[in-house]
Amino acid sequence: MVKAQRRVVVPVILSGGNGTRLWPMSRELRPKQLLPLLGETSLLQETAWRVRGEGFAPPLILCGEPHRFVIGEQLAELGVRPQAVVLEPVPRSTAPALAVAARMVVEEDPEALMLVCPSDHHVVDERGFRRAVATAAEVAAEGYLVTFGIPATSPETGYGYIRSGDPIRHHEGAAKVGAFVEKPQADLAEQLVADGGWSWNSGMFLFPPQLLLDELERYQPGVLRHATAALESAEVDLGFLRLDVDEFEQCPNISVDHAVMERTRRAAVVSADLGWDDVGCWSSLWRLGEQDQRENVMLGDVVDQGSRGCYVRSDGVLVATVGLQDTVVVATSDVVLIADRAHDQEVKQVVERLKAAGRPEPLAHPVVYRPWGSYEAIDAGPGFQVKHLTVKPGQRLSLQTHAQRAEHWVVISGTADVVRGEDTLVLHERESIDVPVGCVHRLGNSGTELLHLIEVQTGDYLGEDDIVRLDDAYGRILAAQPT
Predict the structure, then answer these.
(1) Which residue range(s) make up the domain with 430?
(2) Domain limit, last residue, from 302, 328, 353
(3) Are 67 and 157 found together in one domain?
(4) 463 and 417 share a domain?
(5) Separation between Cα atoms, residue 153 and residue 434, nearest integer Å
(6) Which pLDDT value is given to residue 17?
(7) Which of the 8 DSSP states describes residue 403?
(8) 73-82, 99-108, 403-412, 461-470: which has the minimum mean pLDDT?
(9) Do the domain assignments include residue 325?
């Protein structure tokens, strides 16, 4: 049971990251926390499942706008009903988001505690996690801002480090924070691990929310002021709470570590040996994966001859490897990544170069998910583009027009409900229809099975911004917005 003096714990799940070091699987529109990288459920779902049950309130989710519908669907699959899903209108680090969350928790229950969980972490020992939360809740109830420290067993340069100071009486494994070190170079990381008394900064916290607000007022009043104003001017949109963009974008882009934890006198650390990993790079997945006798992790359609210490993953195509050593190979339908495992942190720099060049690969997978289903571009050339669309039962696209393209739809399986101009039709398997340039149209699925459809677009311009919505179930009545 996770209680401290009968104070309930409100999980605050942060889902705003892009996970660029796990590209090409992780991309901006479908980042790592929304992917099933370690099993059948996503990292976000793992996190939400971990903070359920007695002593926990329903979670509060903070995320970016592009991910809201996927997050809603993934939580619904678990039967998890969040207190709220809060949309951050522009990317910011953790301090502004947690200022908003703390305000919301205080307004709902001034005596509650808030447990901050990044949505992209993996925890093996769930019982150990609950024990650590119970200890942290007791310490936080005494007026501390608690961080969870993972015993540092190797000189990782991608983690921050925490030195434990004076022990906190009557709380085993809890201490005041002595010092923080942010992502050290390899030689310093080796020294910290050798010295002992240092732990990795997990990025998980347990706060009395009013204390966090007080310390933000002391050390970063600009964060608190603009985050509070963004919440006060927030609007409810299709069940999501949309923060005010003008106020939120004025928040300093600073983490709660730099804003508060490295400056406050009320910082504490609870040792948490949980089998924790932040799943931040391909080496993490290699460590966590099921290795064969040659220390390889092979996933998907893979054939190997004589490799050792490798992580090889195929998302469809056959991948054959021969005699590789400590190598990462990841193949999607549009990208192949090959990297030395010792340099997999540098994948982030590759993504930055691709973005600077205007390439689409950092943004989206070939399969693009929408609240109504998905689409995948399967062929394209001068004046044409072919897509595979799926529409979920009970869903429909917006009522829309295109100024520069015509479309031809062919039903592969399922039932398509079509509006074309003044006509309303139902199409079945192997039936098709033309949608001329400028024609008002809509595609839906009132059936009980997933609708699969091939769409052939023709025209001089085939960009996703050639759309005018006339009616939309998802609140997107805007021109120049993708479907």
Answers:
(1) 367-471
(2) 353
(3) yes
(4) yes
(5) 62
(6) 82
(7) S
(8) 461-470
(9) yes
Question: Same structural domain for residues 263 and 382?
Answer: no
Determine the 3-state secondary structure of 434 from DSSP. Answer: strand
Question: Going by DSSP bridges, is the β-strand pair 373-381/367-370 parallel, antiparallel, or unpaired?
Answer: antiparallel
What are 311-319's contacts with CB under 8 Å, separation 24+?
311/282, 311/283, 311/285, 311/286, 311/341, 313/25, 315/25
The b/e string for 448-463 (b: 16+ C-beta within 10 A; e otherwise) is: eeebbbebbbebeebe
Residue 242 sits in the same domain as residue 303: no
DSSP label of 465: T
Is the Cβ–Cβ distance between 377 and 456 less than 8 Å?
Answer: no
Residue 282 lies in a domain: no
Whether residue 388 lies inside any domain: the answer is yes
Q: Measured between alpha carbons, how far is 328 from 309 in angstroms, rounded to an integer?
A: 9
pLDDT tens per residue, range 137-156: 999 999 999 999 999 888 88
Average pLDDT rounded to a whole number, residues 271-287? 92
Give the chain's radius of gyration (CA, Å): 25
3-state SS, one letter per residue, for 228-290: HHHHHCCEEECCEEECCHHHHCCCCCCCHHHHHHCCCCCEEEEECCCCEECCCCHHHHHHHCC
pTM (2 decimals)? Answer: 0.86
Query: What are the structure tokens assigned to 336, written together?
Result: 């192949």
What is the distance between the alpha carbons of residues 205 and 202, in angstroms, rounded to a whole number?
Answer: 8
Give 411's strand partners. Answer: 453
Q: 62: which 2 tokens? A: 């903070």
Total tally of structural domains belonging to the chain: 3
Q: Residue 240 corresponds to which tokens in the numbers above?
A: 């999501």
**Hey, what amino acid is at 404?**
Q
- The region that residue 43 occupies, defined by phi over 0 for left and psi between -120 and 50 for alpha, beta otherwise, is alpha
In angstroms, the Cα distances linking 201 to 151, 157, 265 are 9, 12, 17
DSSP string, 13-71: EEE----GGGTTTSBTTB-GGGS-SSSSS-HHHHHHHHT-STTBPPPEEEEEGGGHHHH
Asked if the structure places residue 361 within a domain, the reply is no
